[in-house]
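agent> Task received from the user: take the single chain below, predict its 3D structure, and emit structure tokens. No templates, no multimer pairing.
agent> Plan: (1) validate residues, (2) run structure prediction, (3) serialize to tokens, (4) report one or two observations.
agent> Step 1 OK, no nonstandard residues flagged.
tool_call: predict_structure(input=
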Amino acid sequence: MFEKKGDRLDKYRAYLIKGKGLSEKSLQMLERMNFTNSLLCEGYASSKIIPVIQKKFDLSQRQAYQLLSDTIQLFGDVSQASKEGRRYIVAENLLRLGKKAEQEGDFITAQSCFDKYAKLYGLYDSTEINIDSKMWMTPREIIFSDDISILKGKTEDIEHEIVPTNILEHESVLK
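)
tool_result: status=success, residues=175
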């Protein structure tokens, strides 16, 4: 009955999520939003971003604030994200940049990006992993009984070697 009225950013959401087409002007605007979002993801404050996008895109201050507002509305406010969320965003950007550099043949930049990605997630840390072996053991079913007849037929004799308590007395050492 009632249909939600769309906002002016719906066409960008449709492009990003569903792959719908955009006009040339809208693609340019999305490119501006991507640039602004990358600055936000890098941790720059809004007060530092405004002059940069004003100069880069030749915008008035009002237009720059509108672009920043639209970017935050479209991509989310990364300044409110948790530390782990920010780490994920930076890591994904590094991975994307590394893959792009690798495709273009710039292997030094690609390796640098992949190294930073690995350091971000602590893949180069030399700390040992403490594994509790008891956690991986499957518990056995133990049945207690005082009936000795249960043990009949359950034992078998095998060849064995008696090892002395003092290892220096062992025959292999004496030879």
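agent> Step 4: summary for the user.
The CA atoms of residues 94 and 113 lie 5 Å apart.
agent> Done.
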